[in-house]
């Protein structure tokens, strides 16, 4: 992968802007770990083929009202910054240019993948799934800080265990722990922002959850403890505050709105939080932690098989977003989530399946070029190009990729049954990108070995099941006939 520079990222943003209809067609600009997320006014003005053909683009995903361009870790945030600046600097609508002439690799698969994405978007347009997306939007902006603090925590753990640099380890510990200590506040701010409240009021009511002075208060016959309820308590408090604030805006006279609305919102929400919500959310959070531990400790291999095997279909249905608060709750409680490494095995199965497709379809240069372009991203946990460009449109390879994920999940789950926990200190990364963030109860070396072993099992199972069962004899014959008349064996360069 060629190194990127600020000029490269700025140029990428400038080249993508007219392809999505220009600045006047953009209603919102955001990003997650791997994607530039755009709100667009007129979907018909977006030039899909040209966007997908751009050398920096790894894939395109539509999720509800959001048009998402997959750029990969690191690059997504940098391109988004430049993209936002270009949109702000050019508020006037820019007409879409004619579609680009860059050839699209494996047109038939791309068309099928687009149809599947459109169908998934339509099926995801339900109130429940829209709610899940909004809750996910609360936690996604927290991922960069979780990753940074997780890496610092891992480094600090290695230094403490080795006895090196004792003068700096307390500082590293403070850096790693401070964000988690105030995680509830950030959840409250983002919740209020996402659901239409005042962000600082959402943060104020969520701060009650982590305030040390709550030890003087009793609820349901028990003394409260700072952090009781965790992120779930903060989420609930901020949602309640948003509802109360919006009610106040409708009924409080404008002349006293600036005084009464924030006061009533914080007072009423604070009382409910202290004398009810913290206790209830604490019980739920505790049940989540105990449930996850019990699930993997008692039925680890089977649980890993089910979770690893079903994660790709959950992603297709948009239901994986419901897991984000669970991951964050586990990280807040235990310092890592034991669910993410198991679910990450789905990506390993996908990679193994793609390699098998590459080997089996020796006569189809266009599909092989697509796989060559998308495989590096797949190894570091960016699976959309392989899913929508290869396995899902082909059908059977998607199923066999799930089998690979199930095998890798069962491997990691088996070690959980044997007493070796494998967790992640952050959410977002997977594949090889998760190695620096893994943590467990047996030391870093053992934890990395188990996680790496799960990836290898996922790769092998995905490859073997796809190689032997991924195609019928008829489909294998048809797909090995290259539809591309270009005699060049490398019709498309490998994308960065």
Descriptive tags:
Gyrase A, domain 2, 3 domains, 4-stranded antiparallel beta sheet, 8 strands, alpha+beta, two-stranded antiparallel sheet
Span between termini? 5 Å
Helix content: 55-70%
CA radius of gyration is 24 Å
What number is the mean pLDDT?
85
Uncertain spans: 91-105, 485-496
Could you tell me the strand content as a percent range? 5-15%
Q: Which class do the helix and strand fractions yield?
A: alpha+beta
Helix count, per DSSP?
19
Placed side by side, the strands forming the largest sheet appear as 1-2-4-3
Number of strands: 8
Order of H and E elements: HEEHEEHHHHHHHEEHHHHHHHHEEHH
The number of distinct structural domains comes to 3
Gross morphology: globular
Major sheet? 4 strands, antiparallel
Give an account of the 3D structure:
With 496 residues, the chain is of the alpha+beta class. The chain has 3 domains: 6-100, 2-Layer Sandwich (Gyrase A, domain 2), CATH 3.30.1360.60; 139-289, no CATH class; 310-479, no CATH class. The chain is 65% helix and 6% strand. The chain is built from 19 helices and 8 strands. The protein has helices at residues 6-19, 48-53, 75-89, 107-123, 127-139, 143-162, 169-181, 183-194, 199-210, 230-251, 254-317, 323-334, 339-343, 345-360, 365-379, 384-394, 396-417, 444-469, 473-479, and strands spanning 26-31, 35-40, 59-63, 66-70, 218-219, 222-223, 422-424, 438-440. Helix 8 packs parallel to helix 10 (230-251), helix 11 (254-317) packs across helix 12 (323-334) and helix 14 (345-360) packs antiparallel against helix 17 (396-417). The longest helix has 64 residues, at 254-317. Mean pLDDT is 85; it is low at 91-105 and 485-496.
């Amino acid at each position: 992968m060629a190194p990127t520079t600020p000029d490269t990222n700025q140029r990428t943003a400038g080249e993508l802007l007219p392809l999505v209809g220009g600045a006047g067609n953009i209603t919102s600009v955001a990003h997650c770990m791997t994607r530039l997320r755009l709100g667009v006014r007129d979907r018909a003005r977006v030039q899909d083929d040209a966007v997908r053909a751009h050398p920096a683009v790894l894939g395109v995903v539509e999720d509800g009202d959001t048009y998402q361009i997959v750029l990969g870790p690191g690059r997504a945030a940098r391109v988004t910054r430049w993209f936002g600046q270009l949109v702000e600097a050019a508020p006037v609508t820019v007409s879409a240019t004619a579609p680009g002439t860059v050839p699209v690799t494996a047109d038939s698969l791309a068309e099928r993948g687009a149809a599947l994405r459109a169908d998934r978007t339509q099926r995801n347009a339900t109130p429940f799934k829209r709610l899940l997306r909004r809750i996910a939007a609360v936690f996604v902006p927290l991922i960069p800080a979780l990753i940074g603090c997780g890496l610092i925590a891992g480094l600090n753990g290695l230094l403490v265990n080795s006895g090196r640099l004792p003068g700096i380890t307390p500082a590293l510990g403070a850096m790693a722990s401070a964000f988690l200590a105030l995680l509830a506040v950030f959840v409250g701010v983002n919740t209020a922002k996402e659901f239409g409240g005042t962000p600082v009021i959402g943060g104020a009511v969520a701060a009650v959850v982590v305030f040390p002075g709550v030890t003087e208060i009793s609820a349901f016959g028990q003394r409260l403890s700072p952090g009781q309820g965790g992120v779930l308590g903060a989420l609930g408090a901020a949602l309640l505050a948003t509802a109360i604030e919006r009610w106040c805006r409708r009924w409080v006279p404008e002349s006293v709105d600036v005084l009464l609305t924030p006061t009533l919102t914080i007072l009423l929400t604070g009382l409910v939080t202290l004398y009810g919500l913290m206790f209830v959310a604490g019980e739920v959070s505790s049940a989540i932690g105990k449930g996850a531990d019990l699930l993997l400790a008692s039925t680890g291999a089977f649980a890993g098989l089910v979770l690893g095997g079903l994660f790709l279909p959950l992603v297709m249905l948009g239901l994986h977003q419901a897991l984000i608060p669970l991951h964050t709750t586990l990280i807040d409680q235990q310092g890592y989530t034991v669910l993410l490494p198991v679910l990450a095995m789905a990506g390993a199965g996908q990679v193994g399946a793609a390699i098998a497709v590459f080997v089996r379809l020796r006569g189809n240069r266009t599909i092989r070029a697509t796989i060559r372009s998308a495989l590096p991203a797949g190894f570091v946990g960016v699976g959309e190009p392989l899913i929508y460009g290869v396995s899902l449109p082909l059908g059977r390879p998607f199923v066999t990729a799930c089998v690979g994920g199930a095998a890798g999940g069962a491997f990691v789950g088996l070690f959980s049954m044997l007493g070796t926990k494998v967790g992640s200190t952050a959410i977002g990364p997977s594949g090889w990108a998760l190695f620096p963030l893994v943590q467990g109860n047996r030391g870093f070396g053992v934890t990395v070995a188990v996680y790496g072993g799960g990836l290898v099992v996922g790769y092998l199972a995905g490859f073997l099941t796809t190689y032997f069962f991924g195609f019928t004899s008829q489909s294998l014959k048809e797909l090995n006939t290259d539809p591309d008349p270009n005699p060049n064996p490398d019709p498309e360069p490998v994308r960065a």
